[in-house]
Write a structure and sequence with these properties.
Elongation Factor Tu (Ef-tu), domain 3; 380 residues; 4 domains; conserved putative lor/sdh protein from methanococcus maripaludis s2 fold; OB fold (Dihydrolipoamide Acetyltransferase, E2P); six-stranded antiparallel beta barrel; elongated
C-alpha cells in the first residue's frame, strides 16, 4: 500500500513539472529580446558585450544607418570670465624686513612705472647700506697695501710672499664690496633705514595687502598691479570638447555688461586640465581692445568648432548608462546588435560628434535604441 502511494505521488510531481515548463515556454512573449540565444549565435565569450537580437516583427520600430565621417560645423558653448593676461600682472613687495611707514596709493589708482607705492622703515636696510661704506673703505686699504707691496718688491726691499698675501686680500675685499653693493641696489633709492617701494609696471592698483605700522618680512607681497588694456577671456571647456577647438577659431562672446555680442578668436589652449572638474582653459583674444570691460566679469563663449571630418550621429542614437557612460548599438549581423561605448563631443542642432568608439562603414541604430536597452536613457 505504501509502495503504490509513493509511485502515484512521483508520477503526479513529474506531470506537474512538465506542464509548468511547457506553460513557461508557451507564455513567453515573442517580442521580448532574446539576449542569451543571440549572444551564443554571435559566438561572444563571457565578459564581452552581449549581442542582442530582436524579432522580425519588432524591427520596424528601429532605424539603422551606415555611418561615414563628415564635416561637423558645431559651436562649443562654455562659461567664461574676463581675466588679466599672465604678463599683465605684477606685484611689489618688501625686499627687506621692516615696518610700513607710509602708503601712497589705494585700490583703483592708476600709476606709472616707478611711482612710489609705500615707504618702509628697516634697520636691516640701514645695515646693508652701512656695509657698502665699510667694504668700500676696506677695499681702498687693500688696494693701497697691494700697490705698496708691488713697489717694494720692485725696489728690492719687499718679499714675494707679502705681495701675494696683499693681492689675495685685495681679491677678497673686492668680492665683499660687490656683494654689499648688489644687496644695497635691491633696496633702491632711500637713505639710512628708509626703503621706497615703487611700481614695477604702468597699470592699476588691484590690491593693497598692508597698512601703516604693519611689520613685514622680506618677500611679503604688499601690492598687486595689472595693465587694464591687457585683458582676455578665459573659457572653461569640457574635456571631450577640447579636441574640437583649434587656435585661431572664431568666437562669439556674450559679456554680461555689454548690450550685444562681440567678436574674438582663440589665442591659446591650456596644456593642463582642472582635475576636479575635467575642464581645460581656452584663452580668447578680443578683436576690439577698447571695450569697457573689467577683470572678473562673466561671459558666455560660443566657439566655432569646425574641425576635421568626424563620425556624426543624431542625438537619438546615443544612450546614457549609469549617468556617465555613452553607448550606441552597432548592427554586427542582420538583426543582431552589439552595445558599443563611445566618447562624444558637444551636441549641436540635434547631432553629436563621436570622438572615439566608431569607424566609418559601421551600421548604427540611429532611432529606437531604447528598445534594445531598457536600463539606459536618451542623450536628449
Amino acid at each position: 500500500m505504501h509502495y503504490s502511494s509513493f509511485v502515484l505521488i512521483s508520477v503526479l510531481l513529474c506531470t506537474a513539472c512538465s506542464e509548468s515548463a511547457t506553460e513557461n515556454q508557451a507564455g513567453e512573449p515573442s517580442s521580448v529580446v532574446n539576449q542569451q540565444s543571440a549572444s551564443k549565435a554571435a559566438g561572444h565569450d563571457i565578459g564581452k558585450p552581449k549581442a542582442i537580437s530582436i524579432p522580425e516583427a519588432s524591427r520596424s520600430y528601429i532605424t539603422v544607418a551606415e555611418i561615414r565621417p563628415q564635416s561637423f560645423a558645431a559651436t562649443v558653448q562654455a562659461p567664461s570670465r574676463v581675466e588679466f593676461r599672465a604678463k599683465a600682472l605684477s606685484t611689489a613687495g618688501a625686499v627687506v624686513s621692516g615696518r610700513v611707514g607710509k602708503i601712497n596709493v589705494q585700490v583703483g589708482d592708476t600709476v606709472k612705472a616707478g611711482t612710489p607705492l609705500a615707504v618702509l622703515e628697516s634697520s636691516e636696510a640701514a645695515q646693508m647700506r652701512s656695509d657698502v661704506s665699510r667694504t668700500r673703505a676696506e677695499l681702498q686699504r687693500s688696494q693701497d697695501r697691494a700697490k705698496r707691496q708691488e713697489n717694494m718688491l720692485k725696489s728690492g726691499v719687499g718679499l714675494e710672499i707679502e705681495r701675494s698675501e696683499a693681492n689675495f686680500q685685495l681679491e677678497e675685499d673686492k668680492a665683499d664690496y660687490e656683494r654689499s653693493l648688489q644687496a644695497a641696489r635691491l633696496l633702491g633709492e632711500g637713505t639710512d633705514q628708509t626703503v621706497v617701494l615703487r611700481a614695477p609696471i604702468e597699470g592699476v592698483v588691484l590690491r593693497v595687502d598692508t597698512s601703516i605700522g604693519t611689520a613685514v618680512q622680506a618677500g611679503t607681497v604688499l601690492f598687486e598691479l595689472g595693465e587694464p588694456g591687457a585683458l582676455w577671456i578665459v573659457a572653461d571647456i569640457f574635456e571631450n570638447d577640447l579636441p574640437l577647438i583649434e587656435k585661431g577659431a572664431k568666437v562669439e562672446l556674450h559679456i554680461t555688461t555689454l548690450p550685444k555680442p562681440v567678436a574674438g578668436h582663440v589665442a591659446a589652449l591650456s596644456a593642463a586640465m582642472q582635475a576636479d572638474l575635467r575642464r581645460g582653459a581656452v584663452y580668447i583674444d578680443l578683436d576690439d581692445h577698447n571695450l569697457p570691460i573689467k577683470p572678473g566679469m562673466y561671459a558666455k563663449s560660443m566657439i566655432e568648432a569646425a574641425g576635421p571630418k568626424r563620425i556624426v550621429l543624431p542625438t537619438t542614437a546615443v544612450l546614457i548608462k549609469d549617468k556617465k557612460q555613452f553607448v550606441v548599438y552597432v548592427e554586427t549581423q542582420d538583426g543582431l546588435f552589439e552595445p558599443r561605448n563611445v566618447t562624444i563631443g558637444q551636441a549641436h542642432d540635434g547631432f553629436v560628434p563621436v570622438l572615439e568608439g566608431l569607424v566609418g562603414g559601421e551600421r548604427v541604430v540611429v532611432s529606437g535604441a531604447l528598445l534594445l536597452d531598457s536600463e539606459a536613457s536618451m542623450l536628449l
